[in-house]
Structures are given as C-alpha cells and as structure tokens.
Write a structure and sequence with these properties.
Layout: H1 2-15, H2 30-35, H3 53-60
Helix pairs in contact: 1-3
Length: 61
C-alpha cells in the first residue's frame, strides 16, 4: 500500500507536465529507488510511452 502512494508521488511531475520522465524531476526521491535498482530510470515516462502506464496505474489504484 505504501509503495502505491510513493509511486503516485513519483509520477506527479510527469502527470502535471513538468517533466517527461519522473527521473527528470530533480527533487524526487525516485533517484534513491533508481540507485537501488528498484525502479528503472524510464519509469513513469512520457504519457505516450508504454512505460508511463506505471504512473497512471498508481493514480487509478
């Protein structure tokens, strides 16, 4: 359950159009998850990109 909330927060800058990929947002804790190899750098990318579905799934859940 906590992970879904964290995913939602990570996807917010993409969802609101501030960046194309969640990892492009410099203030995000997603960088820790990427360093630990828990998330890919392209996670929650451009909404036209299939990888962006992770951010939309977090929002729907």
């Amino acid at each position: 359950m906590l992970r879904r909330h964290v995913d939602y927060v990570h996807a917010n800058p993409v969802r609101h159009g501030y960046v194309r990929r969640a990892s492009d947002w410099p203030y995000s804790s997603i960088h820790r998850y990427i360093r630990r190899r828990e998330l890919d750098e392209d996670w929650a990318g451009d909404p036209g990109d299939p990888l962006a579905s992770a951010g939309r799934e977090a929002r729907a859940g």
